[in-house]
Amino acid sequence: MTTPLLEVDDLVVEFPMRGLVAKPFRALHGVSIEIAPGETLGLVGESGSGKTTLGRAVLGLAPVRGGSIRFAGEDITRARRSRRRELSRDIQVVFQDPYSSLNPAMTIGAILEEPLRVAGVSRREARDRIRELLDQVQLPVDAIDRMPRNFSGGQRQRIAIARALALRPRMIVCDEPVSALDLSTQARVLDLLISIQESTGVAYLFVSHDLSVVRHISHRVAVMYRGEIVEQGDAVQVTDAPEHPYTRRLLMAAPVPDPARQADRRRERERFLAEVGGR
Fold first, then answer.
1. Highest CATH level, class, for 1-90+169-241
2. Domains of the chain by residue range
3. Mean pLDDT calculated for residue range 234-239
4. Which of 56, 80, 126, 234 has a CA between 20 and 30 Å from the CA of residue 89?
């Protein structure tokens, strides 16, 4: 059996609330997941389910109250800031909004060069690496001298992916990376992520609210509801024949391109919600 690259065990995350006697808000209730090298785990749930909080905890950006996070066998649950900077070589992130994630005052070349220079890569080596990255995300080399405003949302997200790949990480946390894109652009970006994984062996923790998107890219799927994982397993099994009522509700809510099928799915969802009382 392959040793997990990422192991999250019984993780609890709490956020302090305002007021001297206010109890902290518990966002994650004992969550456990594993991701193998080169694997994609799709983490799916509605807004407020805790899926983004889990991704932020892995990145060291959420207050962990209990449990543990291990990366490549090392406990990084409460890693110091200096160690977190070192870990950024191995753990990177692609954010949701391609419009706000890139500095509008910097050229694409400068945006991609920044993490390389911080890591001690020479300017000449960095320029060569930038050309490799642009080719990897299927953008022309002349993008180096252009500004983010010159690119569409899908192209900007490709640039964000290139930046995440700059230091050849072992895992990328993808936080709703296609939710701001139209359907055809979503498909192209998802296919690009799959192609990159096949060529580099990078692992993904892929966060999304859309079960159909998660199915397209994931090997396994974990479904989150109110800070807990309610269903987890093979992507095809979870998305084709979900066992938990919440997963079934997510599947019925996912859009499909065929209007007739969409209408059938909407009616099926209404019947289901009537049966379970909207839970």
1. alpha beta
2. 1-90+169-241, 102-167
3. 93
4. 234
